[in-house]
Specification:
Length: 277
């Protein structure tokens, strides 16, 4: 059975996802400005609506982790089965969020396994879960796995098996930019750009190929090198990158999903000194 704690983790994860959706400007990604554009209005609203459809599945993942009690192959298989059912529910609600579901599902399960763990310890626990193969997974390769194999990119599974390094980098960026007085929106945008600057985003590889991926990575680095979203030169570079990627129809969706994972971990209560001891 699911507990209040399970549902709270699921809602925190969905809040992180909708928080990511609320940011603007996000280069090449849907944001609230799309509500004023007739061509993309449905896309952004559908993403916000379908995010809520993740809650039952994420709560079930948390419950499975609490019931299992450790990062075992049995838990990995159960999370995979729940995830595939949740993908179907999300598709009925408008679609989207497949990559975010993978990351958030593992992180929610890891947080449920150790409620006292800090953010980066949760990422380490998610790594242990992801290390097990999902023996019930369909044998037909997904688009992401096919792109990963074609270009040698880590992809979503590689990111999880490495302990979510881009999620951890985003967490570091959130901390450092907040410390120097950036607004929360600016800190989150810089965290997104940090992920974009190095992630081998399989969505970008699919739509734009290696050249497009390198172009996006260089553009994100350029914004950060200009000072980030909290400075005037950085904000101008961000606006130019946003216009460029929208014009090319290149969307770094993998980066957006990992930012949602970072925002979820960032929302977890800080581990107390007593529990750390």
């Amino acid at each position: 059975m699911q507990s209040r704690e399970d549902e709270a983790l699921a809602r925190a994860a969905v809040d992180a996802l909708t928080g990511q959706l609320a940011l603007a400007p996000k280069p090449g990604l849907p944001d609230p400005r799309d509500l004023d554009a007739r061509t993309t209005r449905v896309d952004h609203r559908a993403l916000r609506w379908s995010a809520k459809a993740l809650i039952p599945g994420l709560a079930a993942m948390a419950a499975a982790a609490r019931r299992t009690g450790e990062a075992t192959p049995v838990l990995r298989a159960e999370l995979g089965a729940i995830g595939r059912c949740t993908e179907h529910s999300v598709a009925l609600a408008g679609g989207g969020h497949r990559g975010a579901l993978w990351a958030l599902g593992l992180l929610v399960a890891a947080a449920a396994l150790d409620p006292d763990a800090g953010a980066k310890d949760v990422a380490a626990t998610a790594k242990r879960i992801a290390a097990h193969p999902d023996r019930r997974a369909p044998r037909r390769p997904s688009r992401g796995s096919s792109i990963s194999a074609k270009y040698g990119a880590a992809g979503a599974r590689g990111e999880a098996k490495a302990g979510f390094p881009h999620v951890r980098r985003a967490l570091d960026t959130l901390a450092t930019t907040r410390a120097v007085g950036a607004t929360e929106t600016q800190a989150r945008l810089d965290a997104l750009l940090t992920v974009m600057s190095t992630l081998q985003d399989t969505e970008l590889l699919h739509t734009a190929g290696p050249f497009g991926l390198r172009h996006v990575q260089a553009g994100a680095r350029g914004v950060l090198e200009a000072g980030g979203a909290s400075t005037e030169p950085g904000a101008e570079a961000l606006a130019a990158l946003d216009a460029d990627l929208h014009a090319r129809a290149w969307s770094p969706r993998g980066s957006a999903g990992l930012l949602a994972g970072a925002l979820f971990l960032d929302s977890l209560p800080a581990r107390s000194p007593a529990s750390a001891t």
